[in-house]
Amino acid sequence: MTESRDTVARVDAEALQREALSAIEAASTANELDELRVRYLGRSSELKLALREVRDRETGMALNAVRVAIEAAVSSRQATLERAELDRALTEDVVDVTLPGDHLPLGHLHPITQTRREIEDAFLGLGYEVRDDREVETTEYNFDKLAFDPWHPARSQRATFFLDETHVLRTETSPSQIHAMEEREPPIYMVSIGRCYRRDAIDATHYPIFHQFEGLAVDRGLTLADLKGTLLHVMRALYGPDRRVRFRTHYFPFTEPSIEPDVSCGICGGAGCRTCKHSGWLEMGGAGMVDPRVLANVGIDHEDWSGFAFGCGIERVAQLKYDFPDIRPLWDGDLRVLRQF
Amino acid sequence: MRVPVSWLRDYVPIEMPLDELATRLSISTAEIEGIERRGVSDEDGNLGLFRIGKVVEAEKHPNADRLQLCRVDVGEGEPRQIVCGAWNFGAGATVAVALPGAVLPGGLTLDQRKVRGEPSNGMILAEDEIELGADHSGIMLLPETEPGTPLADVLPLTDDVLLVESTGNRPDLLSVYGIAREVAALYDLELAPPPGVDPEPAGDEPVDIAVDDLEGCPRYIGRLFRNVTIGPSPVWLKARLHAAGMRPISNVVDATNYVMLALGNPLHAFDLTTLGGGKIIVRRARPDETIRTLDGVERKLEEADLVIADAERAVAIAGIMGGEETEIGEGTTDVLLEAANFEPTGLYRTSERLRLRTEGSNRWEKGVDPYLAEQAAKLATELIVSTAGAEWTGHVDVQGQLPERPVISFRPERADELIGLETPPGEQTRLLERLGFEARDGDVVVPTFRARDVTREVDVVEEVARFRLEEVPFTLPARREMFGALTPIQKLRRRVEDVLAGLGLAETYTPSLRAEDPDPQALTLPEPLSAELATLRTRLLPSLVEAARRNSELGAESVALFEVARVYLPAAGLPDEHTHVAGIVEGGWSRAKGIVEALYAAVQAEAVFERTSDELLHPGKAASVGSGLVGELHPSLLEGAWGVFELDLATLLAETVELRYTDVITYPPVRQDLAFAVSDDVAAGDLVAAAREAAGPELRTMRAFDVYHGDQVGAGRKSIAFAVSFQSSERTLSDEDAAALRERIVAALAEKYGAELRA
Fold it and tell me: Across the interface, do B465 and A224 touch by the CB < 8 Å criterion?
């Protein structure tokens, strides 16, 4: 009994823990660590022997705490050494990170589609509906109801594709205005987007088939100022928040007053360059307050309601956004071009 | 229209910078497409080196037969010796001289030099050398002026030309005076009275004018001139025509063109002696009547065409072009001047039909003020008398009922309402008055030169709006109703585009018009732009086949294209327009099928494929699916194996089902592989359909993953292996439940298709 008491007494628990932890921390290989584990935790280790001998609760708890601490240190050191070992092995397994990854097929949306969506989103944000009306129209919807004079040059075979005397390929998206106003009572806020056709010879900026977007708002008390504000919003949505917009007086059969919006040139910032023909401004299309004759043609009282409308070519927007000099490649289906977008 | 600023200054004082003027006009009147600076540079005292000179002596150069040696007084006391290549002058002539150091247009600097051994201390100028004209046949001969006078005091040596692009509703802007009126109104400047004062008449001869058609020609002023001397116009007049873009011809013709440019009223001058009976009749053309016009072309007229005729024949197509036989020539001594007014619509039709557009027709077709003819006649008379030494001996003014000035009831507050900017009524009135309108108690009286364009209150509002356009604020409508959203088919379109792009297809746009179409009934344009763009397509695929072919020829790899566009199906009246999506991919049938399946899955629609045939497709690899076709392209159309599809978006939309959650988590599925031996002509899809019918909703999936032909199943038969899963949302299926479901499937397939379950 006295002997065992001596053994316990001989074990200085704190010193043992200190010694073991520092040795474990210093172990640099798995073998070294294993030897230390046997030395401090093995069956014949000082600690195990002491634990076997212990008789009082207090000493037992103290020694047990030492055991737990040493075990934790061993397992933590083991994890560290294993991770170091794995990392050493992995450094042998090196790739050239500049080589391409697996080839996954990636498709492309046409620049007109991408532009079209930006336009749609700008108008959806303003609470407009998007319309997609017919491309083959009657002369009644393409001209008469839009108040084109009987001698307006657009009515000529030289400007417009006729299928027969009364049917044409629409020359602008404006017939949508009439359809929208005939289908429902105001208020109307809509944008119509789609293909239009004019008898233009093909060159860098003309193609007999092109896309337009055309907006129409009819409500009580709409003003020219509302038209200016709306176009400012749309132009900035399309070209960026820093663009300026100005308006010039113009003439269209279906609007009065009529104006043409210009947006400040993005290439030179308005200082003048080749793109803007040194004016600092880019022409964007046509606009105006809906002519009372057009409202009368669809049975809307122009004293009660007023409206504004505007139209613009999508190819032109795309051309300015993506900076291509020639619109013909938009129609060529050439993958070298399409895959850039 | 080209508007020389030096000419504009005759009518309105211009002191503001031209850039600013151009911007102001562009915003409120008509677009200024540019300002062309022309003539002699006015920098560094250059203008001071251009003087009036008086030729004191002129004789042959001693060493050169084709040169003259002159002594020219340029106001320096001692005349200068100048060598000159022209011979159209002699001693006593007043000429334009550039002194050494002068910089000519184009950048050439004159230096003092010897010409064939004789010093030449300057240059006697021809009009083209300082951009006053195009003539280089001789030097300019000027009216007698004090030698040494700066040339710039006499001629517009330096000028700017405004390039004005006016709109079709403003024929009044097709004149220098019309632009001046706008400038005066915009800047509140004083406008000079319109040019043209009648000289004293030299006689009172009758002028024989008969207008048979007062609708087509509401006014015809005819004036007679005798003792006319045809010759070149004075330099100042030629310079103006040249700067405005017209070629000077002779004094009388130039006078008519000058008046057209100055006032906007086209005129015509006839050689009186060539007019049959010495008279003018304005009438419609006779059947089969022809005329040889000034440009030398024989033209066939129609009865709707308005002509100017003499006693026998048509001598001009009214307002469009004169006839060759009655034009002013070098020997003309008697002139009949026409200052008329023609109605626009008929004239436009004639010009369209004859495909003949002239400076005159361009103005008439927009509607020229009939009251303008009188002022035009005065200015032309003044010019012809002063530049051709003519005597004005006769005048007649034939007119129908000329239109009254429109009177419009106008509410200034209505202008504010429509514009969204307040303009005090007094200011509106002042502004309108500057434009020639008259305001009288609630009404506005429109000036005759705007009578066609301004007929309603809203047109008057535009006049106010255009003046204040820059001050109009930027506002957004105050909304009470309406919200914006894409429609289901617009959303579907975006989804389809995104899915196809995600699957590796590149979107393309191809023309809706083609050379031909698979449907012989397809609509065609009677007058296409070219044979390639003649037919409205009923299918997209042929366009895509062409695009794929071009790309292959260009060496593109993994060609995969799609397009979303309209097709136009012939119908009574307007064609049925449908939006289709079509694609073409390298890789044949199963690639196309995979894409269509993925598309259906992505839009939540169920695809049912059935064998079909189509002229564009491989006869053994062609399927219909609810919204269209999928298959392998017929190999005769394009080399290689190409998968193609074309679907109708509206039909696809109808096939989509609303998404609902199915419980696949609470109770586990039971998975089995089942293989059935069947006759070769049984389709896998038929087996799946029969199995679903027999097993009900607990058959969750059944997908064919292998097809085997061979000895083990025998000739004429095949084995199809399916991965099958059973699952219930209410309970865990036991082995017995699964066995029972399987039995129902086996029995159904055996009964319907003679299928044998393979172990």
Answer: yes
Question: What is the Cα A282 distance to its own chain's centre?
Answer: 26
By the 10 Å C-beta count (0-12 exposed, 13-18 middle, 19+ buried), A26 is classed as: exposed
This prediction's pTM: 0.85
Is A232 a member of any domain?
Answer: yes
Q: How many domains does chain B have?
A: 6
Domain boundary among A90, A124, A157: A90
**Residue B323 and residue B291 in contact, taking contact as beta carbons nearer than 8 Å:** yes
Q: Inter-axis angle of helices B251-263 and B235-243, to 10 degrees?
A: 50
Any domain includes B481: no
Read off the pLDDT of each residue in B743-752 and give the average, rounded to a whole number.
95
**Residue B96 placed within a domain:** yes
Picking from A58, A90, A122, the residue at the C-terminal end of a domain is A90
In a domain, B546, yes or no: yes
Dist CA B581 CA B599 (whole Å): 11
Query: For testing the chain B interface, which of A161, A164, A244, A305 should be mutated: the one with the most B CBs within 10 Å?
Result: A161
Number of C-beta neighbours around residue B69 at 10 A: 21
Instruction: Provide the pLDDT for residue A11.
Output: 65
Average confidence (pLDDT) over B446-463: 96
* DSSP string for B282-335: EEEPPTT-EEEBTTS-EEE--TTSEEEE-SSSEEEETTTEEBSTTS--TT---E
φ/ψ of residue A179, rounded to 5: -55, -45
Q: Is residue B146 within 8 angstroms of chain A, CB to CB? A: no
Tell me the CATH number at B699. Answer: 3.30.70.380
pLDDT in tens, B506-518: 999 999 999 999 9
In this predicted model, what pLDDT tens digit does every residue of B23-34 receive, in sequence order? 999 999 999 999
Reduced DSSP (H G I as helix, E B as strand, rest coil) percent helix, strand, coil of chain A, to 5: 45, 20, 35
Weakly modelled stretches of chain A, pLDDT under 70: 1-11
**Residues in B touching A258 (Cβ below 8 Å):** 462
Q: Do A162 and B527 touch (CB under 8 A)?
A: yes
Based on the domain organization, do B413 and B456 belong to the same domain?
yes
- Residues within 8 A of A (CB atoms), B 465-524 only: 465-466, 469-470, 472-487, 490, 494, 497-498, 500-513, 523
Question: How many Cα atoms are found within 13 Å in the side-chain-facing hemisphere of B5?
Answer: 23
The string of pLDDT tens digits covering residues B662-681 is 888 999 999 999 999 999 99
Please check whether residues A227 and A321 belong to one and the same domain: yes
Chain A CB contacts of B421 under 8 Å are 223-225
Residues B168-190: tens digit of each pLDDT = 899 999 999 999 999 999 999 99
pLDDT at residue number A2 = 41
CA dist., res. B348 & res. B365, Å (int)? 5
Name chain B contacts of A151, Cβ cutoff 8 Å: 344-345, 348-349, 365
Q: Which helix (H) or strand (E) holds B492?
A: helix B488-502
The two tokens of residue B675 are 């293989």
User: What is the pLDDT at residue A1?
Assistant: 40
Domain that holds residue A71: 2-90
Mutate to test the interface with B, among A335, A338, A339 (most CBs of B within 10 A): A335
Bridge partners (DSSP) listed for residue B399:
B219
**B107: Cβ contacts below 8 Å, ≥ 6 apart:** none
- The residues pairing with A74 across neighbouring beta strands, listed in sequence order, are none
Task: Write down the pLDDT at residue A92.
Answer: 84
Whether pLDDT at B102 is above 80 = yes
A262: β partners: A246, A283
pLDDT score recorded for residue A114: 96
> pLDDT tens, B362-388?
999 999 999 999 999 999 999 999 999
Say whether both A135 and A259 belong to one domain. Answer: yes
pLDDT of residue A3: 43
